[in-house]
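Hello Y.,

Per our agreement to keep a running log of every chain we model this quarter, I'm adding this entry. I've kept the format consistent with earlier entries: sequence first, then predicted structure.
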Amino acid sequence: MNWAIIVAAGKGLRMGGDVRKPYLLLGGEPVLGRTLTTFHRSGQFEELVVVVAAEEMATCRREVIEPLGLEDAVRLVMGGRERQDSVFNGLQACRGHDDDPVLIHDGVRPLVRAELLTRCLAATRQNGACIAAIPASDTLKQIGPDGRIAQTLDRDKLWRAQTPQGFRLGLIRAAHRQAREEGFQGTDDAQLLERIGQPVFIVPGQRSNIKLTHPDDLPLAEAIWQHLHN
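Predicted structure for the entry above:
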């Protein structure tokens, strides 16, 4: 069986405004709703575990889950202090077996397409761990503490990580437990496996699969949405 954890518990401080990112409207529907709809309509998941901030559980149920009729498809879970804590809570709620694939996805990447979910699931079953990513297209500079350029990095070897990130449940649970025991905070879930020597493979992602982080990301997402659906 396949499982999905949709993480939507962040504070969204860089976005500004009074409405948190998952509940901003994209194409007339909450961003998180767009994400859940893609996962649900793909027909590939036994259950969607949705992790939200404690104070937003009722809001999520009322504004997103119930209007979409997803009460039977979604398990709502309380988030933690950091994203890594929220994912850990989601993993604890997954009822799958160690060999089952689980995709972990940012709730505010609403433009992900079903075919990427399919490819990530296939790579997870084959390799145990994978991430969606796209090749770096800009020239990348590494700087020193004084702001001067230290070196130009070889962009041919650099990829920009996205979600979904796919793992066998047993592997990612063990990696999260070890990170918690050692007090390690990673920047994504794949890093928790990298640090213990577990190979993680790249699945070519989608350039339209943007994460809503800054205020100008929403009009960009709206333009992409309109392009994809017109």
